[in-house]
Amino acid sequence: MKPLLKLLASLELTIGCLVLAMVLILFGTLDQTHLGIHGATEKYFYTVFVTQYVEFLDINVPYMPGGYLIGFALFLNNLSAMIYRFRMGSKKLGIWLIHLGFVLLLLGEFISSVFQEEANLTLDEGGTADFTESTSLVELAVIDTTDTETDRVYAIPEAMLERKQQIEIDELPFHISVDVFMPNSALQRRDDTAPESAHVVNQGFGLQYFAIEVPETGKMSERNQPSTIVTLFAKESVDGESEILGTWLAREFMRHQSFSYQGRNYDLVLRRQREIIDYYITLNDFSHDRYLGTNIPKNFSSDVTVKDKRTGLEQDFLIYMNNPLRYDDLTFYQASFLPGDQTSILQVVRNPGRSLPYISTTVMTLGLAIQFAFGLQRFSKKRKKADA
Amino acid sequence: MKRNLATILSILFFFGYIYSNFKKQTPKSDFDFDTLGKVPVIMNGRVQPLDSVAKNSLLAMNGKRSAVYQDGTKHHAIEWLAEAIFEPSAAFDRPVFRIHDDGLRAILPHKTPEQRDSAIMAALFGSGSSHHYYSFNEIRGSFEKIRRDAMEASQIESELRTRYQKAVVNLANNAIQFYNLTRTIHHGETPSYLDELAAMQTIAPKAVAETEKQQRGEAFDSESLQGMLGFIQLYRGFGENAAFFTHPAEPVDGQPNWDKMSVVLDEVTRDGAPSKISKNYATLTDAYRQDDVATFNQAAAELLAALDAEDAKAFSKAKAEHQFNYLSPFYVSIVGYVFVFLLAVFSWPFSSRGLNRAAFWTLIAVFAIHTIGMGYRVYIIGYAPVINLYSSAIYVGWGATLLSLIIERLYRNGIGSFIAAVIGIASLIVAHHLIDGRDTLEQMKAVLDSNFWLTVHVLTITFGYASTFFSGFIGIFWVLAGLTTKLIDKQRSKMLASVVYGIICFSTLFSFFGTVSGGIWADQSWGRFWGWDPKENGAILLVLWNVIILHSRWGGFAKTRGIMAMAIFGNVVTSWSWMGTNMLGIGLHSYGFMNSAFHYLLAFWLTQLAVIALAYIPAKNWKSEIRV
C-alpha cells in the first residue's frame, strides 16, 4: 500500500499530469478549428478519455487521457501530497493556500462542466417571454390549440426522441412513435429522386420536402438543425388494430403543422427546448450604437422589464456589454441581435458552481502573494549578507 | 566628472537623436503644413489630427507614412494629403498605390522597372520597385474590372482568398478611400471654393423664398430654384463620399457628434452664411490651388483656432496625437535600445564600469521615452495601454525593460541592460510589423468596453508574457555566452540561475492572476468563468509551464542547465499564448486576429529549440566553466 501512496503523493506524478494537461489543452485548442469550441471541449476536456472512432473496428479507441482523468489524478495527487508530504508551519502558509485553492478550482470546474446550462432568450422590441430556449437541445411539442384562450403544450425532450421509442402521454388520445431522429439535417425538395425512406411521410410539409442526415457541428457560428419523423396512432384499438393518424416530418425552424383528432385541434412542431421561468421579460428597447461614421459597434443594450409571476413585482433593467442581468439563479447577458436592430438575443446561463472559482482563485492568489513575499524577503536577506 | 563622461555623452547623443528626428517631421515647404496637420477631424470613429489621417491613409495605400512622387521626390504624408483634399487633379497622378501581386499588375498599364544608375547597385538590390507603385489615374482605366473582382472576392472569407483576391480587395478599398479623401473638403467641380460660396449666398435666400411659395401653392420662379437644385444635387453626392467629418456639431443623446463638409450647404440655406470653419477650409482650398502661401498659412491658423473654440477637447487630443506622431517615441526607442545594447556589449571586454553605468542610465532614458509614448496613447484613446496586439507588443517590451532595470540595479553587471535592449528591440520591431497598414489607435469594439476587470486582466497577463520572455532571454544569454565566451563564471551563473528562478515565480503570480482576472471578467459579463476559448487555453498553458518549472526545481529534477532550458522553452509557450492562438481565427478574443506571420512564429520556435539543444552540449566544450 505504501509505495502506491508514495507514488500518488509524488512530484513526478504532479509534473507528469501537468505536462499531459499542457498537451491535452494544446490539442484541444488546435482541434477547435475543426470541431468548434463546444465540440472540442466535449471531446478533450469534459471526458475521461479522448477517443478516436476507428472505422474497421467500429469502436471508439481511447488514445489520450481526457480532462476529467487528468484533473482527477491531479486532485488525488494534491490531496495525498497534502496529507503525506506537506509540513505545517507559518512559512508553509502560502504553499498550503495555493494547493487548497487548486483543489477547490478543480472541483469548481468539474461542477461547472456537469451542471452549467446555457440557453438563449430572443425578444423582439415590445415582445414578452417567460421561457428560455436551449442552445443545443430541441423538443417535439404537441400543442392542443382547441381552447382559443390558452394552449396546452406537451413537450417531448430530445433525449426521448433520440431513443426512438414509443411515447405515451396520459392526456393525449394517441401514441407518438418516433421513427427517425437526425441530430443534424439538411432539407431537400421531395421529388421522384427522393429516397424510399422519404415516402413514409404522408402528412404536412413532409409531402413536399424530406430531410437527410448530415454530420453534427460544434462550431459557434453554426447550429445543428435536427429533424424527426413521427407516426401518431390512436390509443383505442379496434379488433387489435389502432387507427393511424399519419406520419409527419418535423424539423426545427419549420412552421407548425396542424391536425385534428376526436374533435380537438393540435399543432406539431420541433423547436428549441424551452424552459419556463418564473417571470416575464419584456424588451422595451434595443439599441445598437456605432462609432460616428463607421460600422464599429460602440455599445449594444437591451432595456427590459421583469415582472415576477410570484410576487407581481415589476422592475426595469438595462442589459449591456459587461453588465448582465442576474435574476434568481440565471444570468442574462447581451449576446447578439438580428439585422435591423429590432430583435435582441440574450444568452442565459445557469451555473450552480459559480462562486467556487472566486473562492478558489482568491485563496490561490493570496497563497502566491504570501509565497512570493517570503521569497523576496529571503532574497533580500541573502543580498544583505552578500553585500556585508 | 570623468567617471560619468560616458553616461553624459550617451544620454546627450540619445536626446540629440530624438530632437533631430522631431525636427525632420516638418515638411520643407513655405506652406504651414505643421499647423494644417494639427487640425482635428473625425475619421474611423475617432478624433484625429489631419497628420494622422494622412499617415494612416498612406500606410494603407503604400505601406509607408510618406509618399514618393512620379518625379522620384519624397514627400511627407501631410503634403500629399493637402494636395489630395485641396487639389485632387494633381494628386490623381501621384503613384501611391503599392501593388505587389503580378496578376493584378497585369491588368494595369505596363510599367518597366527603373534602371539603377550603377550596375553594382542593381546587382546588389535588384531593379528597385518603383514599377510596383501606381497612381489613381493609372488605375482608373481598369477600375471596373477591379471593382467587379473585388466584389466577388469579398464574398469569400478573408483567410480563403487567393493572393490576387486579397490584393484586388485591398486595392479597391484603397482606391475608394483615396477618391473619398479627394471629395471630402471640396467636390472639385468649381475652380474657386470661395466664389462658389459667394454665389450660393446670393441665390440661396431667393431660392428659399421661392420654395416657400411653391409649398404654399403660389406662383414661383422656377429659374432661381434650378440653380439651387444644381448645388443640392452636387452636395448630396459630395456628402456621401466624404472620408472624414470636419465640423463639430451639437451632441446627440450625450454622444459627441460631428458633421461632414457638405453641411455648408445647410448653413447657407439656413443662416445665409457659412461658418468660420467652412470659410477657412474654402480659403485653404483656394490658396493652395493659387499657391498663395500667406493666405494659406493664415487660414490654417484661423481654422485651428475656430476648431479649438468649438470643441476644445477634440483640439487638445488632436494636438497630443500630432506631437506623438512627430516624436515617434517607439521608433526612437528602437534606436535607443540598439545604443544600450552596444554599450552593454562593449562594457564586458573592457570590464568598463563607466560603459556599464552609461548603458544603465541610457536605458533609463529610453525607458522614459517608451513610457511617454504609452502615456500619449493612453491619453489619445482614453483607455488602458493594451487594446490590440500592436500595443501588447509595446507593453511587453516595456514590462521586460522594467524588470531588467530592477535586476540591473541589484547586480550592476550589464546583463540586465543587455537583456532589456534585446527584448526592447525585438518587441518594438514585432510591434512595427503588427501595424500591417492599419490605424493602431483604433476604437474599442463594444465587447472590450471599459471595465475594471478587463483592464486588470489584460495588463497583468501581458506583464506575465513580458516576465516569461525576460527569464527565457536570460536562459538564452546563459547558453550562448557560456558556450562562446568566458563571461559566465561560477558567480554569474549562480546569479543568473537565481534571477531566472525569481522571475519565474513572479511570472507565475502574474500569469495566474491575469488568467483568473480574465475569468472573473468573463463571469461578470457572460455568466461563466471559463469557456475553453483558445486565448484562455493559451494563458493556462503559460501558467502550467511556469508551475512545471517550479516543481521541477523543488523536486530536484532540474538543476541550473535544466531550469535555463525550460525557461527558454517558456518563450515558445508564451509566443504561442500571445500570438499563436490569435492565428487560429476562432474564439472570443477576436480583437487581434492575424492572417499570416505564422511562419515567423515557427522560425522563432525553431531557434528556441536550437538554443535548448545547444544547452545540452557537454560542459567540457563550453568556454565558460559552468556547473550544471
Describe the structure.
The complex is a heterodimer of chains A (388) and B (628). Helix content of chain A is 31%, strand content 41%. With 388 residues, chain A is α+β, with helices and mostly antiparallel strands. In chain A, helix 2 packs antiparallel against helix 3. Chain A starts with a helix and ends with a helix. Chain B has 25 helices and eight strands. Chain B has helices spanning 5-24, 33-38, 50-62, 77-86, 88-91, 102-106, 119-125, 136-140, 143-153, 163-182, 193-216, 222-241, 263-271, 276-289, 293-310, 312-327, 329-347, 353-381, 389-411, 415-434, 452-484, 490-526, 534-554, 560-578, 598-615, and strands spanning 40-43, 46-49, 66-68, 74-76, 97-98, 133-134, 247-252, 255-259. In chain B, the strands form four sheets. Chain B has a two-stranded antiparallel sheet with strand order 1-2. Chain B has a two-stranded antiparallel ribbon with strand order 3-4. Chain B is 67% helix and 5% strand. Among the domains of chain B are: 1-21 and 328-443, no CATH class; 193-310, no CATH class; 477-628, no CATH class. Chain B is elongated. Chain B has 628 residues and is mostly helical. In chain B, helix 4 packs across helix 14 and helix 24 packs antiparallel against helix 25. Chains A and B meet through helix 2, helix 3, helix 5, strand 14 and strand 17 of A and strand 8, helix 22 and helix 23 of B.
* Secondary-structure-derived class of chain B: mainly alpha
Widest β-sheet, arrangement of strands of chain B: 1-2
Helix and strand pattern of chain A:
HHHEEHHEEEHEEEEEEEEEEEEEH
The SS-based structural class of chain A is alpha+beta
The portion of residues forming beta strands of chain B comes to: under 5%
Helical stretch tally of chain B? 25
Instruction: Give the low-pLDDT segments of chain B.
Output: 588-594
Percentage of residues in strands of chain A: 35-45%
For the secondary structure, the number of strands of chain A is 18
Mean pLDDT of chain B equals: 87
GO biological process, one term (chain B): cytochrome complex assembly
Keywords (chain B): Cytochrome c-type biogenesis, Membrane, Transmembrane, Transmembrane helix
Domain Cytochrome c assembly protein (chain B): 387-589
Pfam family, one (chain B): Cytochrom_C_asm
